[in-house]
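Troubleshooting: if your tokenizer reports a length mismatch, compare your output against this known-good record of 126 residues.
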Amino acid sequence: MRVDSTPWTVELYPLGKHEGCVAEFIQGLPEEQQARIAKKIELLEEFGPFNLGVGHVAAVHGTRNHVYELRILGRSSFRLFFTCVGHVVVILHGVQKKSQHLRRKDVETADRRAAEVLESLKEPGR
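Known-good structure output:
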């Protein structure tokens, strides 16, 4: 079986900005939790989202724009919602997991942002 060796990159929503939704979410966490998230993002870049396995990545049901969740497990668990455009992973939304189920509001936020990202990439000059 041949594994695609094209490198993956990870970007945070909103694209092209150094400050914003996802970056602020991550930076607002304690350093230990930031480090755990950073390690998972490094794994995404190294292996791509679809080679990490079922325990790490899952499709989010009820979305129209191919949204997935990256699971960061531990005493405090987190979910990073993302979509892929080519070999770019765009992290759309992050939440601390406090219950067994994903909140509908978070899923809708990620799906809406995925639609924005995909639409922006259709614009002329991109």
